[in-house]
Amino acid sequence: KVLSSINTANKGKVRDFIIPDQTINPTFYGFKVSLKSGDPVALKSSVSNFDGLSRLADTENCSLPIFSSVDGQFTVGPVVWTFPNTTTSFWFLESVGSIVQTAELSMEIAVVQGTMDCRLEAFKLLGINNLMYEFADETWKGWILGKIVSHALSSMDNNQLISQASADITKSIAEDFGNQWCQQQAAIRSM
């Protein structure tokens, strides 16, 4: 019931993120691939499709008369990052299009309820899985750059382009989970 409530609440939501440009250094066989948006110092992106939270394994529950806790591993996704109006250049080729990246995030969440309060105790991003990239532009230059960008981004450290957004999404989902679980525990205790 907790997962269902969170997924319903997140359905259709889009979050905006800005990624500092200095963190992005993709190369294609040793040659720099340039990614720029309208902002000279950052890539702007939006994130959607984070309403598919599910358990990776059984959760561990502990219940005592004055204490309850839940700890488990979860996955969400595929989450979609969109970097619209991105100017991509490699040697003499340049094109404007959107970079679309999809991935599944796995995370661990722990929530604790005592006699005084109920809170998110801990959360941690465990991994980024099934990472895929696409450069969307319908021109012949865009088609060629699409292959180059996909290869360049795939050969980077997978966390480099989306690490800040991944951390923010993990925190937000963990907080949502903690709030929903605490509400459910409060309802059970009031019966």
UniProtKB/TrEMBL annotation:
Gene transcribed to yield this protein: S6_2
Lineage: Eukaryota, Metazoa, Ecdysozoa, Arthropoda, Hexapoda
Organism superkingdom: Eukaryota
Name the UniProt record assigns to this protein: Microtubule-associated protein VP6
